[in-house]
Amino acid sequence: MSTPETDARSGTLHDVVTTEVKPPRSGFATFLLVLCAMAFVIAALVRLLGIDGTRYMIAATSLTPYITVVGLLIGLFALFRKRWVIGLTMTVVGVVLVANLAPRAFPDARPNGVGQQVRLMTANLLTGIADAEFIVQEVRKRNIDVLALQELTPQMVGDLDRAGLRQVLPNRVFLDEPGGSGSGIASRFPLSQRNLTPPSTLQQAGALVDLPGKDIEVVSVHPLPPVVTAGPEAWQRELAGLPAPDSTGAIRVLAGDFNATLDHVGLTRLLNKGYVDAADQVGKGLIHTWPSASGFWPPPVTIDHVLVDSKLLVDTLDVFDVPGSDHRAVVTQFVVPRL
């Protein structure tokens, strides 16, 4: 544009031409957005295609809900900055992930169940240092019928009995061991031990629960974590070794610390065999169970589950902190249909 200006010596007017300079588009910002988009799309493909990969990929998959939110926000920012291809790509991929995650927050429609009501609780005891009195107090208060325990030690067995567990749940199949490898099941109803899983690194107790009417088989699940330095092979093998639903025998329930979220393919395969996740059924599938302490790191994830045969009807589910443990306990009530 031109503006008039007076020459100081001659006093005459002449035009001075000025040019408006626009700031260049930031190539570095675009580069960062491209990197974010690539990482987001790769993480989404790993989740959607059911790829386990390395322990780092498995850890990233457990963060799918967080990755989805961050990816959508970056996608919207890219659209705001008029990086259309990047923004649209991330937004579309984010919407696909939301479509996979959102059903966990809404209860499924279910018929009214007629049969034996069972209240089951599962708790990881953190190498046997959780508060035994609190565990027994919750068993009493919540009228628990079946209790699945992980990381059960001989010392913890004694602590639980001194707190009165045997008076409330007199029947038990305990495979207690020092450290974090023990496991156990206690019940108000008669129990008989069952070997329902192949040999595993950590004990996974199995038992037949003799209910009035149709019996159920319960496994206290605890595969080795996938992020150990040895790699995820043991975790993959032990998840794959969990029993499928039995169409002719007792109805099965898998309860415990799966070290897996609903986004991991190992858990998805179990659901595809005929189990349902109790938390997902009642719209609480996004409530975290580990770590129990509030904070931002490590990000809270949902790795403790109760998987029930799809023939069972889930009524309620609750998750709560256990003093002394890094896991939250899960309590669910379901109905075992009559014969």
UniProtKB/TrEMBL annotation:
SUPFAM superfamilies: DNase I-like. It comes from the Bacteria. Residues 121-327 form the Endonuclease/exonuclease/phosphatase domain. InterPro entries: Endo/exonu/phosph_ase_sf (IPR036691), Endo/exonuclease/phosphatase (IPR005135). One of its GO terms (molecular function) is exonuclease activity. Keywords: Endonuclease, Exonuclease, Hydrolase, Membrane, Nuclease, Transmembrane, Transmembrane helix. The chain crosses the membrane at residues 28-49, 56-78, 84-102. This is Uncharacterized conserved protein YafD, endonuclease/exonuclease/phosphatase (EEP) superfamily. It comes from Lentzea flaviverrucosa. The lineage of its organism: Bacteria, Bacillati, Actinomycetota, Actinomycetes, Pseudonocardiales.
